[in-house]
Design a protein that fits this description.
single chain; 433 residues; Rossmann fold; Dihydrodipicolinate Reductase, domain 2; Alpha-Beta Plaits; elongated
């Protein structure tokens, strides 16, 4: 059996896990793929004591792997944008299949990369870029291939999910829990990508492209983070029977596709509401199968390596199947060019929290403003007055309303003399149809 030779670029957390899984499970992989997978070369700046590279050629030059004529599959695990893009395009130009865990690279440059791969008839696989070890991409491309996907929703950033979980359970403010997440290694020193939703938006763009057969559209994805969510919001949501989760949502409508990442109230009884800590989960609704739910570790050395190795194994099966190696994005093979809806055109129910002066008639004025814009109230909480400043929180759940109409109403509410400060606004999803 001629081995399929794998070159790994990057020997950090995921790279070392990938080496370990490939070596430890070599016999299993050979029996399942019909191919012997050999780690033939590694490019790394320095050794990693968490994996044994004895007998494997190691170089500090990533492009040496990309141009090595013996390498069949290049695994890009260096992260970042520019260098990673150049590495991947170099590998493709040299006729190599590529596996990557780099969701930012795929979300922002995937359309160009897949076009290059198609010209060279090689595969670029990226399962590990979305939700770590959860096989969400394979579910969409293979298990659910016979379905028209109506919508999907996911908790696809473990750091943000950990922060919201801790805020709810401990009643701690965002800044305090963020520091804890950083101390535990869940959040980076600069946590912007995680807490402001950019990481989740990268992943959602990839999921949506696979679900709907549309081009990657990260630049059109509405993105809102969790830094403005307060412990009060989490408590009030619970009193109303909801949990707040940071969701990525993609939905096909008659007008176009919704792509949005934001804090979201979901019913406490929903399965996604029980996904806590750093775990990830993706819920997919198909016309034939209905709803299917995928849950697991969204990050970590070997959970992510599990997805990397799965992609390597898939490509290995294609090595001796001429013509089978096609880039795995339907949009590059005649997919739909469906418009992405701006957030102002999205319809959603909403949670509103406002701090009001505790005067007679305030609630009536609030409901009058909402009524003038056709916004119906589904539930209401009026909290006790604060002795410190004589204000009280008014919390409302609205029926479904177009975002542009709601924004106009919010401006009018904030202009009322009895409303102190901005009105907090969190969308509500029931994820039932």
């Amino acid at each position: 059996m001629k081995p399929v030779k794998v070159g790994i670029c990057g020997l950090g957390t995921v790279g070392s896990g990938t080496v370990n899984v490939l070596l430890r499970n070599a016999d299993i992989l050979a029996s399942r793929t019909g191919q012997k997978l050999q780690v033939a070369q590694i490019a790394a700046r320095r050794p990693n004591p968490s994996c044994d590279t004895t007998g494997i050629p190691v170089t500090s030059d990533i492009y040496e792997v990309a141009t090595n004529p013996d390498i069949d599959i290049l695994v890009e695990l260096i992260g970042g944008y520019d260098v990673a893009k150049k590495l991947v395009l170099t590998a493709i130009e040299n006729g190599k299949h590529v596996v990557t865990a780099n969701k930012a690279l795929i979300a922002e440059h995937g359309n160009e990369i897949f076009a290059a791969a198609r010209e060279k008839n090689v595969v670029v696989a990226y399962e590990a870029g979305v939700a770590g070890g959860i096989p969400a991409i394979k579910a969409l491309r293979e298990g659910l291939v016979g379905n028209r996907i109506n919508w999907l929703a996911g908790i696809i950033n473990g750091t943000g999910n950990f922060i919201l979980t801790e805020m709810k359970e401990k009643g701690s403010p965002f800044s305090e829990v963020l520091k804890k997440a950083q101390d535990l290694g869940y959040a980076e020193a600069d946590p912007t990508f995680d807490v402001e939703g950019i990481d989740a938006a990268h992943k959602l763009a990839i999921l949506a492209a696979n679900a709907f057969g549309t081009p990657l559209a990260f630049d059109k994805t509405y993105t809102q983070g969790i830094s403005q969510v307060t412990p009060d919001d989490l408590q009030y949501a619970q009193e109303l029977g909801y949990r707040i989760k940071h969701l990525g949502i993609a939905r096909r409508t008659e007008q176009g596709v919704e792509l949005r990442v934001h804090p979201t109230l979901i019913p406490e009884s929903h399965l996604l509401a029980s996904v806590d800590g750093v775990m990830n989960s993706v819920l997919i609704d198909g016309d034939a199968v209905g709803q299917t739910l995928y849950y697991g570790a969204g990050a970590g050395s070997e959970p992510t390596a599990s997805a990397v190795v799965a992609d390597i194994a898939d490509i290995a099966r294609l090595i001796d199947a001429p013509g089978a190696a096609v880039p795995p994005i339907a949009a590059l093979n005649g997919g739909e060019n469906v418009p992405v809806l701006p957030i102002t055109d999205v319809n959603a129910a909403c949670y509103l929290r406002m701090r009001a002066k505790d005067h007679p008639g305030v609630l009536m004025r609030v409901t009058e403003v909402l009524g003038q814009h056709g916004i119906n109230i589904d539930a209401l909480l009026q909290k006790e007055s604060r002795e410190s400043d004589g204000t009280a929180d008014i919390v409302l759940l609205t029926h479904e309303i177009k975002e542009s109409l709601l924004n106009t109403a919010l401006k009018e509410l904030e202009a009322l003399n009895d409303i102190a400060g901005p009105v907090a606004h969190i969308r509500v999803e029931h994820l039932s149809g």
